[in-house]
């Protein structure tokens, strides 16, 4: 109320001063200062960010199999859902909704949009895989260029990254990756625009530390509902074939009822993973894998919720993977991977 009163006071002062015929340069300067003060107050009110403390989460499960408690036993210790970190990321989602934006996804699955060029500083591992100095790989990566240099890239962005679209300039698009931050140029061929009707009301949280997964849905401003809480298994770093599930903020990009995978180092089919939802490179949220030559569906594995063991993917009970498959729309669901 004090801020609103200040706006009226300053606005009235400005109008009164501007209407007098005896206004001199000093009065005009006061008018300008008053208008600037009004603008600052309005911007402060309009742009005040939602804080994690203002986020409420309630349990209204839509999927209730294999459900974990907030804190649950694991071996000789306990594991838990990190609701504090979840609220931080939900506050981020609330805040990006407040700023009208055109959104896009950075994409280069299996280098379909072209192998990214080398960046200024890169490293090559023992298996000849190239990454930038922050560990983001060239393979399936998106090159990002500084705004003052479009000749050589500065770093790579991850496939599936939610990004603010800031307009095309020649062969490049100006972008602001939300999780990474900063404004960059990316070649337009790596950009997929999202319809401006998308509001990101659904989010999936994968916890690498606690090996669990939760799904949440927005009910109203600042209020989110927990739809499921399950054990999961994330990726294990085991070069050259297996990799960790990457940390970050991604958009669900495609779905496959059965995702066929190959045996390591071979072109032979290794089996399939049911109800697979891809969010980054070859990283899917999927059900318990079935190894060839078997063909049946497996509902659960004792390894879920234990230690990382997949090839980047996030394993779930198959019925939970199907729940996500049916519940989460492509291009409209955010996947957060946290530690």
How is the secondary structure organized here?
Elements lengths: L1 H18 L5 H22 L9 E4 L11 E4 L2 E4 L2 H16 L3 E5 L15 E3 L5 E3 L9 E3 L10 E3 L4 E8 L2 E6 L6 E4 L3 E3 L8 E6 L4 E9 L2 E9 L16 E4 L2 E9 L6 E12 L2 E4 L3 E2 L22 E2 L2 H10 L5 E6 L1
Parallel strand pairs: 1-15, 13-22, 19-21
Antiparallel strand pairs: 2-3, 4-9, 4-12, 5-6, 7-8, 9-10, 10-11, 13-14, 14-15, 16-22, 17-18, 18-19, 18-20
Helix pairs in contact: 1-2
Could you characterize the architecture of this molecule?
The chain is an alpha+beta fold. It is built from four helices and 22 strands. The chain has helices at residues 2-19, 25-46, 83-98, 318-327, and strands spanning 56-59, 71-74, 77-80, 102-106, 122-124, 130-132, 142-144, 155-157, 162-169, 172-177, 184-187, 191-193, 202-207, 212-220, 223-231, 248-251, 254-262, 269-280, 283-286, 290-291, 314-315, 333-338. A six-stranded mixed sheet has the order 1-15-14-13-22-16, covered by helices on one side. Helix 1 (2-19) packs antiparallel against helix 2. The longest helix is centred in the N-terminal third of the chain and has 22 residues, at 25-46. It is globular. The model is unreliable at 1-19 and 41-46 (pLDDT under 50).
């Amino acid at each position: 109320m004090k801020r609103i009163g200040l706006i009226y006071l300053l606005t009235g002062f400005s109008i009164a001063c501007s209407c007098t015929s005896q206004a001199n340069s000093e009065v005009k300067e006061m008018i300008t200062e008053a208008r600037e003060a009004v603008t600052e107050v309005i911007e402060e009110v309009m742009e005040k960010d939602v804080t994690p403390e203002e986020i409420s989460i309630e349990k209204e499960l839509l999927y209730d199999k294999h459900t974990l408690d907030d804190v649950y036993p694991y071996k000789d210790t306990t594991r838990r859902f990190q609701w504090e970190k979840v609220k931080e990321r939900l506050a981020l989602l609330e805040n990006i909704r407040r700023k009208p934006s055109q959104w896009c996804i950075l994409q280069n699955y299996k280098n379909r949009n072209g192998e990214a060029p080398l960046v200024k500083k890169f490293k090559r591992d023992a298996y000849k895989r190239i990454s930038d100095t922050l560990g983001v790989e060239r393979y399936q990566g998106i090159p990002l260029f500084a705004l003052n240099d479009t000749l050589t890239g500065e770093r790579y962005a991850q496939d599936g990254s939610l990004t603010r679209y800031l307009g095309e300039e020649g062969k490049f698009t100006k972008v602001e990756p939300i999780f990474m931050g900063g404004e960059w140029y990316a070649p337009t061929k790596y950009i997929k625009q999202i319809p401006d009707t998308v509001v990101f009301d659904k989010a999936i949280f994968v916890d690498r530390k606690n090996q669990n997964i939760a799904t949440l849905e927005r009910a109203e401003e600042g209020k989110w509902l927990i739809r499921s809480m399950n054990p999961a298994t994330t990726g294990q770093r085991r070069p050259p074939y297996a990799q960790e599930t990457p940390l970050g903020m991604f958009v669900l990009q495609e779905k496959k009822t059965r995702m066929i995978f190959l045996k390591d180092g071979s072109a032979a089919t290794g089996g399939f993973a049911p109800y697979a939802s891809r969010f980054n490179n070859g990283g899917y949220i999927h059900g318990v894998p079935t190894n060839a030559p078997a063909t049946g569906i497996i509902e659960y594995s004792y390894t879920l919720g234990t230690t990382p063991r997949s090839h980047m993917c996030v394993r779930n009970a198959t019925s939970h993977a199907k729940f996500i498959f049916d519940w989460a729309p492509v291009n409209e669901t955010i996947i957060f991977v946290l530690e």
